[in-house]
Amino acid sequence: MNWTDERVEKLKKLWSEGLSASQIAAQLGGVSRNAVIGKVHRLSLPGRAKAGGTTVAAARPKRATSAPRAPNYAARAVTRTPRTAGATALKEEVAVDLAVEPDIELDANIVVPMSRRLELTQLTERTCKWPIGDPLKEEFHFCGNDSPESSPYCSYHARLAYQPSAERRRIR
């Protein structure tokens, strides 16, 4: 199917009226919804009009460049990632949070249990599934101590995993 000047003008008119790509394809005939979307992008048409008088693109909130910062992320680095749009490569700046070890005060009364050093295939419903070490290294293992029926972790690791919200706020 060829995009004649007449069909392009009709596409522009229907798009500005707020019709969807599927509705425009049905009215034009002989063209798919995806072909309409592609032509709209190639023509750089603005977002469709909505009933409230704003365009769809204007009504959408702007997307943040990074996720909300977690309390243990302090440093920030900006990387440039190539991104393709059609046949054109675009550069996009993305903010990346770098992990920083949090300062944790250890209580002198805490006893860290000895790990049973189980592999993934050795875990059961009643063993602690707390990972220890780097999964890409040979010495990686799981805690493996007995865990209560209601938790995947032993009592020690459950205290680490499930901190009360007041404790989390205090650390920030």
TrEMBL record:
Protein name: GcrA cell cycle regulator
Gene3D superfamilies: Homeodomain-like
Alphabetized InterPro entries for the sequence: GcrA
Domain of life of the native organism: Bacteria
Species in which this protein is naturally found: Sinorhizobium saheli
